[in-house]
Every structure is written in structure tokens, then in C-alpha cells.
Amino acid sequence: xxxxxxxxxxxxxxxxxxxxxxxGILPKFLKKLGHDVRVVMPRYYVxxxxxxxxxxxxxxxxxxxxxxGEQWCGVYxxxxxxxxxxxxxxEHEVYYGRAELYNVDGKGFIDNDNRFVFLSxxxxxxxxxxxxxxxxxxxxxxxxxxxxxxxxxxxxxxxFFAKTASVxxxxxxxxxxxxxxxxMDVLGIGLENWLDVEWMGQVNLLKGGIYAADxxxxxxxxxxxxxxxxxxxxxxxxVMRDKASCAVGIINGMxxxxxxxxxxxxxxxxxxxxxxxGKQSCKEFLQQKFNLPKKNVPxxxxxxxxxxxxxxxxxxxxxxxxxxxxxxxxVLGEGEPLAHELFLKTAKDYPEKFACKIGYDHALxxxxxxxxxxxxxxxxxxxxxxxxxxxxxxxxxxxxxxxxGLNDSVDNYDEANSSGDGFKFYxxxxxxxxxxxxxxxxxxxxxxxxxKELRIRGMKKRFTWEKxxxxxxxxxxxxxxxxYHMK
Length: 487
Ligand code: ADP
Fold this sequence. Notes:
With 487 residues, this protein is α/β, with parallel strands linked by helices. The protein contains 20 helices and 20 strands. 50% of the residues are buried.
């Protein structure tokens, strides 16, 4: 198949979350299955042309933007690192000539509607320009969701896309791309499609994208079930129920080359499930780095966007209780300014037990995964989640709220049957989190041999992209069948 994957971010070029991880790795595995896969994303200022070897393509790309008129952009090409998967970067100074991807100082850019409608339309224009006739266009999240709608409207009678089916992956249902109704004039999809995109009198790009796509998927099966309910659907639960026969859940794989405790350039000593001794050195390294004096206490790690989704409010409320235990905690993250303040204050109040770094730090994220004894993720909702997978691989049992991908990927510890690889709780309360941390800490102090077995079970678990890419392939085939029958 010819597959065109379009997204607003992709590792290693530009990343704010798990979306970039998926877009950076899935195409390589699809390629191994024999498909011709291409990726399209914006050329933000953070995408360094020299460092990543971007080469200009000799074409100026015209992109119809409805009432705004035709917009032009430059196009650069590279290949995804360690692969021959082409990736195209759209250069438009007004839309993408900024360092940040979506917002600055916590506020979304005022022209995010035009920036991502442009990306969605430009990717399709580019396919024509370079004569890459896609069997599948694969959109990701609200930024590019509307591509499916473009195919069904403005390109409906375009022979070039006659056989093209569309797929939309929802990495996060909370962000939907809701804009003023006048955006219809930029989209140019015709007023007869208003009801598909309309949401409280506004345009909802994700909603339109869900209705238009031949197939939709979420990044875990659990999350797919959840977003059909009002609690998790962020008002689009009804849309997901409507679309149920065209929706599947496919859990993300993780990158076992990047996250390999036997070959990790960032950590103090290598270790594996056969010989765990290096993990102790990683722990001591972390304790030294953050001046945590006491040696034989469990370290609880957190690496997260510090936002409500991740249950940061629950952690903050539970902190005094957790810190009353004989534990240490290391937090890495950035997000809500109030969370920054509270974590920094806690570090001052409990200098021997609690340390944090506010910011994004790739090396430190490896060091925390390797050096911690347990990893905390009390998410309110979690479409898939990657850090719990890294934690399992690094022998750092995750303590998670049983939701979405966390529930799917972690098996609760069962002492009687010597099974499970993490610790789960269900209700989203500080008390439930504290109780579960208390349980893990008890296991640490009272049954270290059992804990070792628990770590090893997690380290042996695999979430491979080989497996998930086959599921994507199956979904693409289903999309083609649905597209064929719709015509
Ligand atoms: P989400 O996409 O919702 O943020 P995921 O768990 O799916 O959550 O992916 C988050 C990714 O970003 C992981 O690779 C994680 O290690 C990384 N990450 C998040 N915050 C930081 C940070 N402050 N420093 C380094 N890496 C981070």
C-alpha cells in the first residue's frame, strides 16, 4: 500500500508528547511490512535543517485556503533516522516560523485553526504534486483529522484520490480543535457538511474527522471503550458510539532500542533481567544527583506533563501522606505553573526526601526510569501511555490508576499467585493513590525476593511495534474495504 501519514509532530524533529513517538516509529515498521510509507509535518523553527539534513524539493506548493485564498509553501525532504522512510516538511513562515508547536506561555496560538487546516490540506496537495497516489491517508489527532473530510468533499471527484481511504488515529480525545463557525469559509467543505463538524455552534475538527474517516482507532483498546462514555468522551462519546463499527483499539508499541537498560548511554550502569545488579548503581547515581542522603529506601519516580490529565492534582494532595512513609521521590516534568510552584516548595520542605526538576530532560528521564524502584502514574485518563511501558522494561514496577492504556498494559500484582508486574488502583483519590504506594512500599521492605520476581516479570513483557504495525495494516485493509463499499 501507499500510505501517507500526516501529523503535527514526529520524533526526533519536534515533540510534545506520545503522538510524536508513534509518528516517528510506526512508519518504519510499516515499511518493513513492504509498504511505501511517507510522512508529512510542518517545518517549525525547532526542526533544524542542517542537523537533520533537510533537502529542499524544487517545488512551490499551492494550497487552497478558502476565503483566505491560495497559500504557498516550500517543501523539504529527509528520511526518518535509520530508515529510508521519506518525511516531508512544509515550510510556511507565517504559520510555522516559530519555536513552539502549539502555544506559548500556556496559551494556544490564535491562528492554530489556519495553521493545521493548512497542514491537512497541504499534505493532500503535496501527494498530488509529487505524484504519490495514496491508498491510505492516515491523520492523527485534531490537527489533521479534517483530511478525511477534504477527501470526501473537495477531492470527491478528483481522480487522483479515487481509491484513497482515510484513517484517523485518536491519541487524545480531550483536544478537539474547536474554532469559530467562520472557519467553514476557510475549509471550503460546503455547508451541507456543517452538521458533521458542528459542535455547540462552532467547528470541531476532530468531530468532523471522526465522522469522515473510513476507520478510526485509539491507541489502546481500553481507551476506545472509555471514550464511548460521557466520563471520558469529552462530549464526543455519542459520535464514537455512532462510529463503533468503524473503530478499533491498537496499543502503541515502545522503542526497545531507545529504551534498553543493557545499552543505555544515559544511565550509570547496564543491567538486565538476568543480572539486576547495575540497577543499584543507577539508584545511587540518582540519589547523588539529587542529594538524597539515605540509601536503602524506595525511590518513587514521576516523569510527566504536569497537567490535570496526568492526575497531578491527586499527587499533590497525596504528597504529605506519601512523604510520611520511609521513601524518596524524584519528579521530572513541566506544565501548569501552579504545579511547578508546589513541587518546588515540596523540594524545599523535604530536601532529604523529595527532589524535582521542572523542564524537559531526555537524559534525566532515562536516569529516573533506571534509578527508581517504582514509577507513579495516577492518570485521570490515559489513551495509551508510554512511561509505564518504559518502567516495566527498566524493572521499575509502575503504580497506576487502572484506566485506558495503563489498565491494558499493567497487570496487577498478585502475591498469592506470584503474578502481575505493577500496582493498580481504581478510584481517582489521593487516598487510593497513597494506599497503593503504601502497598508497594510494604512489598519493598517486607518481601524483597517477591519484588525482584515482580520486576523481572515486567522486564520480560513486550509491547512491540512489529505486532502493532500488523494491526495497523489490518485496519488499513478494513478502511479500503469500507471505502470501496461506500462509493
Ligand atoms: P503524553 O503523550 O500524554 O504526554 P505518554 O506517556 O504517551 O504521555 O508520552 C510521554 C512521552 O514524553 C514519554 O516518552 C515521556 O518519557 C516523555 N516525557 C514527558 N515529560 C517529559 C519530561 N519532562 N522530560 C523528558 N521526557 C518527558
